[in-house]
Structure formats: C-alpha cells, structure tokens
Amino acid sequence: MDIVIIGGVAAGMSAAARLRRLDEQASITVVEKSGHISFANCGLPYYVGGVITDRDALLLQTPEAIKARFNIDVLVNTRAEAIDRTAHTVTVTDLTTGAARRLHYDRLVLAPGATPVRPPIPGIERALTLRNVEDTDALAAAAQQARTAAVIGGGFIGLEVAENLVRRGLRVALVEATDQVLAPLDPEMATPVHDALRSAGVDLHLGCAVTAIGDHDVTLADQTVLDADLVVAAIGVRPDSQLARDAGLECAPNGGIVVDRNLTTSDPHIYAAGDAVAKHDAVDGSLVLVPLAQTANLQGRRIADRIMGREIGDRPVLGTAIVGLFGLQAATVGCNEKRLRAAGRPYRAIHTHPTDHAGYYPGATQMALKLLVDPYTDAILGAQGVGPKGVDKRIDVIATAMTGHVMASDLAELELAYAPPFGSAKDPVNMLGFVDENLVTAKARTIQWHQLAQAQDSGAVLIDVRSPAEFAAGAIPGAINIPVDELRERMDEVRALAEGHEVIVHCAVGVRGHVACRILAGHDIPARNLDGGYKTWAAGTRA
Amino acid sequence: MDIVIIGGVAAGMSAAARLRRLDEQASITVVEKSGHISFANCGLPYYVGGVITDRDALLLQTPEAIKARFNIDVLVNTRAEAIDRTAHTVTVTDLTTGAARRLHYDRLVLAPGATPVRPPIPGIERALTLRNVEDTDALAAAAQQARTAAVIGGGFIGLEVAENLVRRGLRVALVEATDQVLAPLDPEMATPVHDALRSAGVDLHLGCAVTAIGDHDVTLADQTVLDADLVVAAIGVRPDSQLARDAGLECAPNGGIVVDRNLTTSDPHIYAAGDAVAKHDAVDGSLVLVPLAQTANLQGRRIADRIMGREIGDRPVLGTAIVGLFGLQAATVGCNEKRLRAAGRPYRAIHTHPTDHAGYYPGATQMALKLLVDPYTDAILGAQGVGPKGVDKRIDVIATAMTGHVMASDLAELELAYAPPFGSAKDPVNMLGFVDENLVTAKARTIQWHQLAQAQDSGAVLIDVRSPAEFAAGAIPGAINIPVDELRERMDEVRALAEGHEVIVHCAVGVRGHVACRILAGHDIPARNLDGGYKTWAAGTRA
C-alpha cells in the first residue's frame, strides 16, 4: 500500500510513525514544504528569546533518523501542488531544484497545517511571522539587530513572541485590535494578563488596529506611531486548505477541511488531520478551528489507525490551551462566557481566587479561576484560570472532568492529591464544586460583576463585609461596610437598610460574602453574594 | 436543635461551619481534647523543619474567631468521656480544671480522628509522635536539643518528619520494618524514594524492626544500634473509635466506626466522619481506613448536609495521596499492584518514564508513572507516580478520570493544557492511554520486570535495542544488543536467535522497545516488550 502524507510536523509525522508501527510493509512518503520535519513548533518563540539555546533541540527528528527508525521517505523543501483524485497521484515540486514529480497513493493524508494571517495593511510585507524553523531563524536574526519591536496580535503566539523579545532586551509594543489579549479568556480574566504585560514593560495597545507598517515604526488607527525596528504579525492562522479545495474536497465556511468521524474527507481515499481541518466542538457541537499541537498529534495517530482498518469514532474537541508569560499561567478549556452569551445559551458563572497550595505553606500564590456551568444539567461548559502557579493542574483536572462528564457540583467530591506544598485539603477545584453545589441547592444566590451597577441603579443596597482596613484600601462605589463578624450584632442596622431594597453582599473573593448571605438568610433577609468578590469586580471593571 | 461535635479539626470543624451556614439558629458545640482547633495538621512536620516559621500560621482558627464568625461554642482541652444514647447526652471533662459536665444533643457528630500507633517496644514511652500542635511543640523543642534522630516508620508522616529533621541539621536514621517505604507504592516505584532519602544523608534501614529504644539510641532486630537523641514513632495511626465502641456503636474489624451511605452510625442520631470511620473503597468495595485530610473535610461537610435533611449518597474513596521529600514527589491513587495481586484480581500494569514537560524546554525532569488497569473492562484501578515535578498533576488527572469512569485507553484522548513549559503535546497521561490502547488492541504485548528472570530461565531471548553506549553503561544479564535502527538489516540474526525461543525486547523506558516489537511483528517474529524498559527493571530488581 502506498501512503502519501502532506505535512511533516505534528499530525503528519504522528500519522507516519504510527502507520509504520502498524504496517511494516507499506510504502510511506512524507512531503514537507519547509526544510524540517517534526520540529518543535511550540518551542520556536523560546528559541527566539534565548530560553532554548540549542537550535538542534528544536529539530526533534531529521529525515535520516526517520528513515533509519521507521523506514519512511521524507521529502523536505517539497511542495504538494495538486491532487489528481482519479489517478490517485499528487504532484510535488522540489523547491530546491524546481523538479516536479508525481507520487502515487492508495491513501492520502492531508496534514498541511495552517498559515499565518497577513492582513492587508500597507507595509505588511515587512512583518515577520513565526510558524516554522526558517521563520524562527529570520526572527532571531532580526531581533539581534533591533532595539524596538511591535507585535501585532495578542493571541497565544503574539504573547509568547512579545515575552521572548523582552527577554532578548527589546523594547516591545503589543497591539491588539480588540479590547483584550487572549480571546479565549473573558475580559475580567484577561486583566491580570494585561497587568503582567505592563509590569514587564510591554507597551500594550488594546482596541487599536495597525494601519501602516513603516521601515522603523508602525502607525495605529488612533495615529499613535510606535518605534518598531522589527514587526511581528501574530494575528492568527488560517487552515492551509487550498490544496484540498483545489482538489474539490469539501471545506467548511471557516476554511477548515471537512472530515467525518473517521477523519475522512469527502474523498474516501483521502484523510485529513491537524490545524487544517474543521473540528467538532465538544460543548456546542459547532465546527471550529482548534490549531493545537495535541489535537494534531492525536488526529494523526487516529488516521493511522483508520487506514489500518479501525473505526475511530467521533472525538469532539475541548480546545484546552495554556500560555505562560512573565511568570503567569493563563489557561482555558471549553466555552467562555462571551461565546455562551453570544450564542444565547444559558449558563452560570463562578469566580474564585484560591491559592495554588495551602496558604500556611511558604510560596503560596493566588490564582483567578472561573467555571461556566449549564444551569439545567449542571454540566461543565468551560473554565479559565490565571495565576503564577498551579493553574495548569486545575484546568487539566477540569478538562478531564468534562471528558468524563463529571457534573460541576461533583467537582466537590474529586479526590485530588493533597499535601501542603501541592494543594489544599479543599482543592481549588473542590471549592468550585462547593460553590456550584450551593447554587444548585439554592443555598447561595450570586450576582456577577457586570450586573452590579445595574442592580445598584435599581435600588439594591450593597454591603461590604470585609474589614474596615480592606474597605478603606478600596471599595465599590455605594458600598456600606459592615464586617461579617459584626453582622449578627448589627442586624437591626442591616434590616433597616434592607427595607424595600434588594441586599447584595460582597467581600474580597466571595467566601466571607457567602457566610454573610447565610447569616442574613437565617434572619430572613435574602441577599445575593457578589461572585468572586471585590477582586473579580475590580478586574472586570478595569478590563 | 442541639448539635454536639466531638473533634475540632478537619471533619469536625468542616461539619460545624457548614452546619452554621445551613442553620443560623441551631446550637452547635465543638468538643476538642487538644488545646487547638482547625490546626494545620498536614503542616506540622514543616514547622518542625523550619519551613513554616510562624507558629500562628498553623492555627487556622481560634475558638474566639469561630465564635465571632460562626457563633459556634468551642470547648478545647475537653475530652468526651461517654455517650448516653438514651438520654442523648455526652459527658465531657475539662482537662484543665477536671470539671465534668453533660452536653445534650439532638444530633451528635463523631470526628475524633486517629491516634498514632505505639508498638510495644521497650522504651516506646521515649518516642515522640506527631499528631497535634502540642506534639509539634514537643518535637520542635526536642529537635533543638538533639544531634541525632531515629524515625520509626516509612509512611507519609515518617518521611515528612525525617525530611524536616534533616532540614533542622540532625543526623537522621529511618527504620522501616517492611522492605520499602511508602506502602501505597509498589516496590519498583519506591526505589527512587529510597535513593532520594539516601542521597539526602538519611540512614535508611529497611526490613528491620526496632526492638528497643534506649536513652540515646535505638536497637534494631539485626542488633544494629543507631544513635538517636530523639526518637519519633510514625508507624501509623488507628481510628480513635473507643468512645463509639464504648457507646455500643458498630465498628469494623479494622477499628473504624461503621457508617452508612449517609455517614450515619448504627445510632440514627449519631454521625461520624474523618479518620475515625471505615470508608468504602472505590476500586474493590472493601471497608478501608483512609486517614486523609481531604476526605475528612468532605465528610464533615456532608454530615452537615445530612443533618439538614439532604440525602448525600455513597461516596467511595480513591485515597489519592502525595508526599514531597527532598525535591521528589511521590503520589498514588487507587489500588497498587501488591494489593491487586494479594486479592487475586486480574490487572495489567503499565510503566512509563516521561518528562514533566517538553524535553527541549529547559528544566524538564523525568518521572516514573505506573498505571494499573482491569484487563476485562479497561477500567483504571490505580496509578502511582514518582519524580521531581508534575507528578501531582498527572495523579490528579488520573484520579479525576477514575471518578469520571474514563477508561484507561481513553486517557489517550484527554485534552490537557499544553505549552512547552507545562507539558508535552502528548502528555504523560496521554502516553499511558496510548500504551494501554496498544495492549487492548493487541498491538503490543509486554512482560513485567518481575517476570523477566523466569522467562529467561524458560529460554526466552532478550534483545536490548538501545545504543551500544547505553548497553555498555549497564545491561540486563543475558541481553543481546541490537540497536532498534539496525533491526531491519540484521533481521536474519534476529531470526536465528528467535528460532525455538520466545523473543523479549527492551530499551531504556519502553518506547524504542515498542517500535522494535512492531518491526519484528512485521517480519513475523512475535515479541514481548519489557514494560518500562531497563529503568523499571533496574528499579525493581534493586528494590
């Protein structure tokens, strides 16, 4: 059997190696348009920043090593030009010699990946992108000559590039056309990321598009001109599906190649995987683009299984992702609130600010966690986390819970490994479950940060149950300070305030606010707790 | 309603605080025999070691603070003497004044915890234990006077105490009567822990009981005499169920108080939670003792729910646990191989040695992971991990998968947050799933380290597919070195070796061995791969 694979990085090489492990006899040929295969694409920004100093470390495999281990023929610097679906051939061009040839296939695997979006800005040809080893060499070389840089785009790659250019000693501006970086985060969760960027000296421009790229500057829509010896475009990527489209294979409106549950395209002899394909969203069932290495690797493996006869079944994607920057971790899984709201889908949101491990053990740091839950089924719809440490673990646990269809309130029962250096007896994930359970059983009612102003406008009374010192250090406009431990003795005062008004309670993060609401409930004063407390409100209103 | 709670630490105080949040009017009284409530019992060893320097940090709550916040009456230094189940009273003694009184209850919660086991060794009265704040003060004071210490018992507490006494500058011997520390680990997984202890200068005595404790030494069964100005007994704990037993409440053969799915004892007005109760094991359904803080806290919370009328349902326990020592993490969940074997329960074992994050990103460290799987259902039965970093995360993910009934081969599909500083595109947990899937689909067959010698005795040929350099640095007796990349060209040689013999293949950790087995399978030579490779074999045979 002749198998041709277009693309020699994550999906393509996973498919190739697994195919060989499943079939020692098949002829397997990998066609890669860049000069390298199996390179560490997620590591590229860190080579630019000098975190990874050995360039060879990026090159996980060479064509020679792959031949020796797996007896796979790898053609690098070779571009697939056209597929002849009737003849079962692919025409490829050797980009070094210009020579064209045809490769026969019994099965064809498309794993071409995605290409950086280049918006039609005057001067865009000056902008560098970061997608492969050649890009990395160019960016590292340019960074050595430059003193200033502008990074266009505040997504995962944009942030990683910005961080690494700062590491290189450049003065870096980050320009993002929307109001926040990291679109998968909701705005109040992006605030700590904005803070980290600014603290690290990044000149952050939000809600502002680049209108022109000059020789040593970029101009923004608000006429700001930023010094930029170096410009990096990291606006996003789009599926590299032209070859598939030209061959008449079905593509989704979002540009991704359409595949069925067996990763088969509209041609039964052609499979596709990785960043180039449209995926089935695990939460809402829509066709989405999820250009992530882990998904690409897994799909590559699955295609090999399928070609060798196994029914592989539908694998919807959660899109779990993380980025580290300036000592902060920001991670997400599933849907965010923006998307749920846009879709008109009901949800409840829970914000907490736990520490990564027991507060009494040295080195504990605070993180922000957010959980989104289906209010009818209690299913977890998504989660977000931002903090210096331990966010990766909690998002991974929640992603696993989502895969196992663990309900939000059952997060309370998860048995997670606890010792003081690693967690808390009530882990942050358990705490999310406790809060959810209180909402499910109506032991708690909450109000979100973005609903507070309107509630106050409608006459709600806001009681801040923190200490007088905390209140003095910064309070929500209109709040009245009655510390939680004084509530019982000052109940007449509260009762007078509550007369004819809704009562809303808040503390720093929501814990004392919950206790206060329960005390008030015990005195027949219904109250809502500000979810996530002052901290979430402050992050949201500053966002 | 009068509620009396015996025990004011994890389970007791969780129950008390939750009860108040659910009922503002109930009378809630907590009886605690030590001088402190809600203390950080898991943090105690770290105060002894000077990691936690502020003693007040251990005291998470005071009776005064609990009264102010929750209107709960806390009686410290007060011992519950007897329960009169007919009169619904508990007799308690104030240990400071000696005064006795009776407390009426409508509902009684037993959360007395566990007490350290003190074996009948001559001199045992000299041994200190570590269970509460008073113990900690005594141990910290003794450590200041001592130059040498012997810790008896290699469980979680014993190891934490040993580490912290080393931190204090003491010369420490650790004596464990069985052949390994950390009984929840299988022997090959305990080896790295033994190595870490020895590297840190701990004088480790395994398989050797203490026969006598002298004034400044301890004597072992093999006549070894160890200097020990200070002796700590950390042999284990037993449920503090005497009060319950005296009151005629049902207790299990293991000493734990028996409770039903609603945490109710054999008396419907009396509930019990925490280290004192027998728990329902999530894997094999047996009644087990799981003296862990997280379970205690959760059960306390659940009792409050139950007293307030909620059906809480059965919550079997996985017993997820972790310990950190000398920069190593050792964590477990579910059953280990020893227990499965003793129970005669079929299982398959998988050993891997992945890095905590992408190998090309600086700071990656190797861990050992082990997964135990039901061969008929593919259900996960347990997991163990040992390594410098990232073990906590993987065990938490597997514990969550077990709770969500994610099958072992489906670990392959988990979408875990990946960026090079945090994981790998194929996370260690995914890799366990890949290996399991290969076993399920018969794409791989493995042999365990402890089965190898017998297979070789029965004539099996062992091929080491590592590089000649690796082979030269240390090899398994009888192994023949044919590097994986030379297998295809040396197939005649392999075929000659295989003639009339079973073929077993191994590499360093199992990955190249798997590739080699697949190559051999493609040439009609069936072979088994040594699970976990040389590394697991070496750890097991050294154990």
UniProtKB/TrEMBL annotation, chains A, B:
Enzyme Commission number(s) from the entry: 1.8.1.14
Domain Rhodanese, residue spans: 456-542
InterPro entries documented for this protein: FAD-bd_OxRdtase, FAD/NAD-bd_sf, FAD/NAD-binding_dom, FAD/NAD-linked_Rdtase_dimer_sf, Pyr_nucl-diS_OxRdtase_dimer, Rhodanese-like_dom, Rhodanese-like_dom_sf
Cofactor(s) recorded in Swiss-Prot or TrEMBL: FAD
GO molecular function, one term: CoA-disulfide reductase (NADPH) activity
Enzyme class: oxidoreductase
PROSITE patterns linked: RHODANESE_3
Keyword Oxidoreductase recorded: yes
Keywords: FAD, Flavoprotein, Oxidoreductase, Redox-active center
Keyword check for DNA-binding: no
Matching Pfam families: Pyr_redox_2, Pyr_redox_dim, Rhodanese
Assigned protein family: Belongs to the class-III pyridine nucleotide-disulfide oxidoreductase family.
Protein name as annotated: CoA-disulfide reductase / Disulfide bond regulator
